[in-house]
Design a protein that fits this description.
Number of helices: 12
Order of helices and strands: HEEHHHEEHHHHHHHH
Number of domains: 2
Strand order of the largest sheet: 1-2-4-3
Shape: elongated
Helix content: 55-70%
Structural class: alpha+beta
């Protein structure tokens, strides 16, 4: 997510924040509906319902974080009428955001924004970047599992899947997986992808998805054919990266993704510890 997008979303979410007389932050559900990109109120109520269940499951009183409220709206005739609304604490907003699709910018931002007590832009930006990298790593893991399964279906064995993946790395980086680990100082027992930036995780995922598609589409039945397909796809992705000034093997090593995951979970736990209640 670009810096200017994060700044814009930060300003947007900040502008809808309210405070009770006691200084407790809250957002109105009708406003949050728009901020998160939900078109219909009835659909958003379904998300709120799931969030209430999560709130109760976590040991918090729903009434402390979801308070019924009314909102006056002007009709076309010029008259006004009251419509239902809900006052939401930061904790309630976080639970609602957790039920959304993190691939949507508004949802990904909200999940991180409401999980943090601090509002510092730099902190939010870094956390979003870490979250995106973790999501990309998980996606690559799932895609590689799919490829392993497809190889087994097509050839009757996936024992050489690691070799095929390494050939893909060779085509993408100009070095085998083990050679890249040595260059970057990655332990032999760890996956190379756990130390690579988001752009490379997505590049590898894209090449692997193409291999899966073409293996099925072309009915490739031999390990050699699938291996050659994977090499071709990684070479194509490398060519695209190079054309944009990105040299895969020269990108610096990133922080261990497992440490990132632990940190995100820790930040989340700290940020959501003893959330403030709305006045009843």
């Amino acid at each position: 997510m670009k810096k200017e997008v994060i700044q814009s979303l930060t300003n947007n979410f900040e502008s809808y924040a309210n405070k009770t007389n006691e200084g407790v932050e809250f957002w109105l559900a009708r406003d949050l509906q728009q901020l998160l990109g939900y078109d219909k109120w009835v659909n958003f109520l379904g998300v709120i319902s799931k969030a209430k269940i999560a709130c109760e499951t976590s040991g918090h009183l729903v009434a402390d974080h979801f308070a019924d409220a009314g909102k006056m709206v002007r009709l076309g005739s010029g008259s006004e009428r009251e419509i239902e609304d809900i006052m939401l604490t930061r904790f309630a907003c976080y639970l609602i955001a957790q039920n959304g699709d993190p691939r949507k910018e508004e949802i990904a931002f909200a999940q991180n924004y409401f999980a943090l007590q601090t509002r510092k832009f730099e902190v939010i930006e870094k956390r979003i970047q870490d979250s995106e990298r973790l999501l990309a790593r998980h996606k690559l893991t799932e895609t590689e599992k799919k490829l392993s399964g497809v190889i087994f279906q097509q050839t009757g064995s996936d024992k050489n899947f690691g070799l095929i993946r390494s050939k893909g790395d060779k085509a993408l980086f100009g070095y085998t997986t083990q050679e890249m680990k040595k260059r970057l100082g990655v332990p032999d027992s760890r996956a190379l992808a756990d130390f690579q930036p988001t752009i490379l995780l997505k590049a590898k995922d894209f090449a692997t998805e193409i291999t899966i598609f073409n293996t099925k589409e072309k009915s490739l039945r031999s390990e050699l054919a699938i291996s050659e397909e994977h090499i071709t796809n990684n070479r194509s992705v490398r060519k695209t990266l190079l054309s944009r000034g990105i040299v895969p093997e020269k990108l610096p090593v990133e922080e261990d993704i497992k440490k990132i995951e632990r940190k995100l979970k820790s930040d989340e736990a700290k940020g959501l510890k003893k959330p403030e209640k709305l006045d009843k």
